[in-house]
Amino acid sequence: MEQYNVTGMSCAACSARVEKAVSAVEGVSACSVSLLTNSMGVEGSASPEAIIAAVEAAGYGASRKGAERTASPAADEESLRDRETPVLKRRLLSSLGFLLVLMYISMGHTMWGFPLPAFFVGNHVAIGLAEMLLAAIVMVINQKFFISGFRGLIHRAPNMDTLVALGSGVSFLYSAYTLFAMTAAAARGDGESAHALMHNLYFESAAMIVTLITVGKMLEARSKGKTTDALKSLMRLAPQTACVERGGKEQTVPIDEVEKDDVFVVRPGESIPVDGVVLDGESSVNEAALTGESIPVDKTAGDRVSAATVNQSGFIRCRATRVGEDTTLSQIIKMVSDAAATKAPIAKLADRVSGVFVPAVIGVALVTFVIWLLLGKDFAYALSRAIAVLVISCPCALGLATPVAIMVGNGLGAKNGILFKTAVSLEEAGKAQIVVLDKTGTVTNGEPVVTDLIPADGVSEDELFLCALSLEKKSEHPLAKAITARGEAAGLAPRAVSDFAALPGNGLRAVLDGETLLGGSMKYLSSLLPVPDALRAKADALAEKGKTPLLFARGDRLLGLIAVADTVKEDAVEAVRQLKGMGIHVVMLTGDNARTAAAIGAQVDADEVISGVLPDGKESVIRSLRERGKVAMVGDGINDAPALTRADVGIAIGAGADVAIDAADVVLMKSRMLDVPAAIRLSRATLVNIKENLFWAFFYNVVCIPLAAGAYARFGLTLSPMIGAAAMSLSSFCVVTNALRLNFCRLYDPARDKKRKNTLSEREEEEKTMTKTMKIEGMMCPHCEARVKKALEAVEGVASAEVSHVAGTAVVTLGADVADDVLKSAVEAQDYKVLGIE
I need a surface site. Which of 39, 367, 391, 471 has the fewest CB within 10 A? Predict the structure, then answer.
């Protein structure tokens, strides 16, 4: 996706216009415009020049983000700096200075009798001229509304600024016309007419409208600035310099000058400048900046380190592997930024409405004006109602409803190591009905460990383990590594063996002190030595739990068994419990045998276990599960990539293969299972927030436009243009403020989880209980089938019965709960015997 900065947009109608213009360019396959970040993401083969030309032809400005980006995220942070709020603040303060004087003259004097200079007293024309001059100054200060608004009209793309410009401009022009009429009346000596016409001056409304809209724009700009705080905080993590070795000396250089394969050094307390591999030294590195995990990770030679993480204890030398935009931090920033530039499906309704909203509002204002004139109201009243309609309408709230929530949700996820690649994935994750968990590396740790040592009679644990360690030390098998890892952790040194041989499919053999050492499966060892029934029973029990029992012998003496297993992650059980608490059907997918898979599935309490799936078969399993509901797939390996792509939402464990991360829609940087329900919880909270924003935006316009038009005037409910402008200003502010509430979402607190009604597991359970299969003896022909079928379907609560005399069964579908005894009695009354009901 190529990203562009877009200038000149003021509301949802603007973003809709830009999107429509760029989508029409030949070669553009997808275009998404964000009003929140004033950015645009474009996919396709169209040239940047053609895209920029299309934006400019629509009346806006555009530039490529890539052309301005440097290798350092600092440039990106600068591009997100809130430049709008200071400008609006200066405009507002200048406007208020002149507006207060205007309000003092127009309302303070006429309504409350505030004193005025002597030359104003009794001189209505002078007062009118002063009001016109002050209003004109305020309008010039806020000329951006008029330039943008009328430019939109010229390009036949009216926007929010058009409504403001029309409302304020018409008020000013009508007041100017009235002032000329007052001057003419005063020239004729008709003081009463001149005084009466003063009540038709709306100069204060013209100035108040643009000032109040500026207030709203400033509040909105400040709030919008806060929505990108998470992204800006990520960018601030990037170090600005690095200490590299060049020519045998250490040099401190700007981060932009670090190249791939440069050797750099990091001292305690310093941030790691780029991604790399440790060459020398040992240290603990705090990776909280990227993963949110506060516990430091030990690093030694050969381990990878990432930019923006902090070296806490030792001195390390590293070789740069990824620099500039290729570092993990830069990729995270790009991922969050790209997600903000995309649109969620729920935003499509708002986009469609925004495209026709402004022309429709102008039409409603004209109709309002005409109707009030036809109803006999004077010109000033009808005009006031039309202006109120123009200024109270707010397409901004519609345009901001979705992107502000997406930005805040994405930022909160990034802070907690949960990265959504697009707005679509942020919306869809919360809709998942089935979560499929790949077993190895996702549910389990992915590395076998020793879980049990069971020595034979007369053998100590130390003897059993030392012999096993000596034998397994020379093996490359993953199960052997579990034993050697335990030996290293305990500080044990294996004894030297000779004549080592690996027997494929069976086990290992070697010679220790002249005696043969044997190790392997129960089948292999039991074919060579007698195995006591007690030890055999223990091995079977361990196998039932998903563990692999390995037997060891020395000479003709059985030493015992050691059980090895890929253990379940500490948080896996709690994660599955939380997912089920949300009403989600949890499936565990694995290539292991059914017994091992069932044992692991039982440990985590998965709803369903699918075992024996080959790597290339995972994608087809996901395809079949999608027929039952929306599927989220969680995986970490290269072989999970097709399944991650096929699922409605692919979730990759951050410590997994790059291919899996590339194929996924969501990346969990911390590699914790609890982040899966947290991601779904965040998605649901964001979706609820978007719906709240859209409801407020639509409700505001549906209620306020008729109110401004005077539809409730018979009940004494009307709005002046000034009140309308204030309401318009607050509507966008409320939407943005509501989105900021997402920052208080407790991602890891299941207390407020709501279980979706009629979930997949419940529906399947209902389907099971609503059908019963009866085994019937004595049916010999189709006539018998018909008798049984008629008898069963006569029972109250039975919807239908499918009877087969060949199979000797009747499958009964129930519309209500029916006791087994009732069904049995109905069949046996026809002289057939019921053998059982399932």
Answer: 367
